[in-house]
Design a protein that fits this description.
The chain contains eleven helices and eleven strands. It has helices spanning about 15-25, 45-50, 60-65, 75-80, 95-105, 120-130, 145-150, 185-195, 210-220, 240-250, 260-270, and strands at about 1-10, 30-35, 55, 70, 85, 90-95, 110-115, 135-140, 155, 165-170, 195-200. Strand 5 (about 85) and strand 6 form a beta hairpin. Helix 1 packs across helix 10, helix 5 crosses helix 10 (about 240-250) and helix 10 packs across helix 11. The two termini are about 30 Å apart. Bound molecules: NADPH dihydro-nicotinamide-adenine-dinucleotide phosphate (NDP). NADPH dihydro-nicotinamide-adenine-dinucleotide phosphate binds near residues 97, 119 and 140.
């Protein structure tokens, strides 16, 4: 039996165990995936070493970048890790958030984007948009935290100007309660009304989802997030969560199953 898990704090809301355990069980793989609430970064290395692989979430993605023996693919550009493979006491770091995000929006016609927030998810999203040729700007509450973006050629807004953009992406951690907004409501309302498409990385909070049947009900009839409540259109982060998990699962299984195969399998089970 191999052991995997999601590491972060807080972690009680995570749907990752449900997704990965469903896939392990469906595919007959002898493995189990759990949640690890780590209150201090000093416990990260030993927890990672005790597992075959892990996903990393808030607030440790940047910390784990520094712990990896080798960083692979897109994670080298993002300098934040959401997936770790542990082999022979060595830690290999990956980032599947950017890929998961891009899978959600790749069919939209985009020339410009504005990303709100400058944390780990904003890094993956802004760098992926830039990589795909989308002219991307960023705005963050704390101006000193935008240096990473500036040094990578991503434009930084000093104040939250209302601009016409093709895509507006909300990546702050505000809104997990289903009602709070990160900035003044009127300002956000104007921004949303000027955007062709709106994306919120947050997905609605959920309680007591333990099996695929409850997940199906939630998936099909979930409420709007607080941010998407400002708009009459938009996409929340639930599909991004699924897609980054399928890319991570592909890594956990050494490419034995591909993203498209895992997506089809999981979505068929939601019908
Ligand atoms: P980080 O902690 O790295 O970044 C948090 C961001 O939120 C920072 O920009 C911070 O700004 C901003 N912020 C926090 N509090 C406030 C506030 N009161 N007002 C304004 N801005 C605020 O988080 P992540 O980027 O890792 O995650 C952000 C959210 O995205 C989380 O809810 C997470 O669950 C979700 N997520 C979803 C994914 C998915 O697959 N759907 C994948 C990854 C993340 P400042 O610098 O000023 O503190």
């Amino acid at each position: 039996m191999r052991y995997f898990g999601v590491i972060g704090s807080p972690i009680h809301h995570s749907l990752s165990p449900l997704i990965h355990n469903f896939l392990f069980s469906y595919l007959g793989i002898s493995a189990h995936y759990d949640k690890f609430d780590i209150p201090s970064p000093s416990l990260l290395a030993s927890t990672l070493q005790s597992l075959s692989g892990a996903n990393i979430t808030l607030p440790y993605k940047e910390e784990v970048f520094g712990l990896c023996d080798e960083v692979r693919g897109f994670a080298q550009e993002v300098e934040a890790i959401n997936t770790v493979l542990c082999r022979n006491q060595k830690l290999y770091g990956f980032n599947t958030d950017g890929l998961g995000f891009w899978e959600c929006i790749k069919n939209l016609e985009l020339k410009t984007a504005l990303v709100l927030g400058a944390g780990g998810s904003a890094r993956a999203i802004a760098m992926m948009l830039k990589k795909q040729g989308v002219d991307t700007m960023i705005y963050n509450r704390t101006p000193s935290k935008v240096d990473f973006f500036r040094s990578r050629g991503i434009g930084v807004l000093e104040t939250l100007e209302v601009k016409e953009v093709d895509l507006l992406v909300h990546t702050t951690s505000v809104g997990l309660d289903g009602k709070s907004l990160p900035y003044q409501q009127e300002k956000l309302q104007s921004l949303v009304s000027k955007a062709k498409y709106v994306f919120d990385v947050i997905y609605p909070s959920q309680k007591g989802i333990v099996g695929i049947d409850q997940f199906r009900d939630f998936f099909l009839s979930r409420p709007k997030t607080a941010f998407l409540g400002l708009s009459n259109q938009g996409m929340d982060g639930l599909e991004m969560l699924l897609y980054q998990a399928f890319f991570a699962f592909e890594i956990f299984c050494d490419g034995q199953y591909c993203f498209e195969e895992l997506k089809a399998l999981f979505y068929n089970s939601l019908k």
